[in-house]
Amino acid sequence: MGKELTTRAEDYSQWYNELVVKGQLADHSAVRGCMVIKPYGYALWENMRDQLDKMFKETGHVNAYFPLFVPKSLFEAEEKNAEGFAKECAIVTHYRLKSDPDNKGKLIVDPDAKLEEELIIRPTSEAIIWNTYKGWIQSYRDLPLLINQWANVVRWEMRTRLFLRTAEFLWQEGHTAHATKEEAVEETLKMLDVYAAFVEEYMAVPVIRGVKTPNERFAGAEDTYCIEALMQDGKALQAGTSHFLGQNFAKAFDVKFSDKNNKLDYVWATSWGVSTRLIGALIMAHSDDQGLVMPPRIAPLQVVIVPIYKGEEGKMLVDNKAIEIMDGLKKLGIRVKYDDNDNARPGWKFAEHELKGVPVRIALGMRDLENNVVELARRDTKEKFTVSLDGIENYIQKLLEDIQQNIYDRALAFRTEHTTEANSWEEFTSILDGKAGFVSAHWDGTAETEEKIKQESKATIRCIPLRNTHEDGKCILTGNPSTQRVLFARAY
RNA sequence: CGGGCGGUAGCGCAGCCCGGUAGCGCACACGUCUGGGGGGCGUGGGGUCGCAAGUUCGAAUCUUGUUCGCCCGACCA
Question: Is the ipTM reported for this complex over the cut 0.95?
Answer without folding.
Answer: no
